[in-house]
Amino acid sequence: MASSSDIRKGLCIKYNNDIYKVIEFLHVKPGKGPAFVRTKLKSVTNGKVIDNTFSAGHKIEDVRVETKKYQYLYKDAETYHFMNVDDYNQITVQEIILDSSQFLKEGEIVTVLINTEDGTTLSVEMPQNVTLEISSTEPGIKGNTATNATKPAILETGAKINVPLFINEGDKIKIDPEKGSYIERVKI
Fold it and tell me: Which fold has domain 65-125?
């Protein structure tokens, strides 16, 4: 058993007869009244996101998880296939369990959270940033680096994001998969 003070991003808890993963949290200590924790929880079984507030000291049942590194292999109609980088065992994962699946490229190494009680896959977490190639965008114009203007671009995975005006087709860029935003251009 854990308490509301143990809540952190990525924590898996049992709540309302389901297992949820904490996506966001905020400890609030108002000037008047007791402290509380405002959370955004994502169900690992159906992908539904709910908002919930836990009062200070509230007991929560946490789920013991094990993290392992897996390599993304390929996607079927509704499932994604991963291979354990240590023992080469393969698993399949439903799309609702994945975070930011539109930025997942074949060969990418991800972190998989596995429930230690029954061996089920709870979540697939992307790395902090991924490097992808621009497959199509409008051509860049020399000198367009001083403004904050952006243009739409399609990545090699099919995802659409906004990039600065100086980015061209074929450029490799670093992306924050959590926010779905451009970080920087990668020099080759």
Answer: OB fold (Dihydrolipoamide Acetyltransferase, E2P) (2.40.50)
pLDDT truncated to tens, each residue of the chain (188 aa)?
788 788 888 888 888 888 888 889 999 888 888 889 999 998 887 778 899 999 888 898 888 888 899 999 999 888 899 999 999 899 998 887 787 888 888 999 999 888 888 888 888 888 888 999 999 988 866 666 666 788 899 999 888 999 888 888 888 999 998 888 889 988 87
DSSP codes, 55-84: ETT-EEEE--EEEEEEEEEEE-SSEEEEEE
Beta bridge partners of 126: none
Nearest to 150 by CA among 126, 128, 134, 127: 134
DSSP summary character for residue 159: -
The β-bridge partners of 163 are 151
Reduced to 3 states (helix: H, G, I; strand: E, B; else coil), residue 4 is: helix
Sheet holding 12-15, edge to edge: 2-3, 59-62, 12-15, 18-28, 36-43, 49-55
Phi, psi of 61 (to 5 degrees): -95, 110
CB-side neighbour CA atoms (13 Å) of 8: 2
Classify domain 130-186 at the CATH class level.
Answer: mainly beta
